[in-house]
Design a protein that fits this description.
With 74 residues, the chain is mainly α. The chain has a domain of 36 residues.
């Protein structure tokens, strides 16, 4: 296995570590293009929801007040 990885890394001008990381990403995260397509499919998916209009105000309220106290900071 080491010999095959080392030969391939030399041929591609990269490192064995990079080949292993790339293989792990492809195996466990899917191909880059597949991930990109999945993310593109999510863009704007909730833009027409009228029940989410107050989300900005809700988030701002959460960020105010006693937040630092809750986090244990003076």
């Amino acid at each position: 296995m080491w010999h095959v990885l080392h030969t391939r890394a030399r041929k591609e001008g990269t490192t064995v570590s990079d080949l292993v990381r790339q293989a792990a990403r492809e195996r466990y995260l899917g191909k880059l293009e597949e991930r990109r397509e999945a993310m593109q499919a999510l863009v704007g998916i909730r833009k027409d929801r009228s029940d989410l209009s107050a989300s900005v105000g809700y988030a701002r309220r959460l960020r105010q007040g006693r937040r630092l106290e809750r986090l244990g900071k003076p």
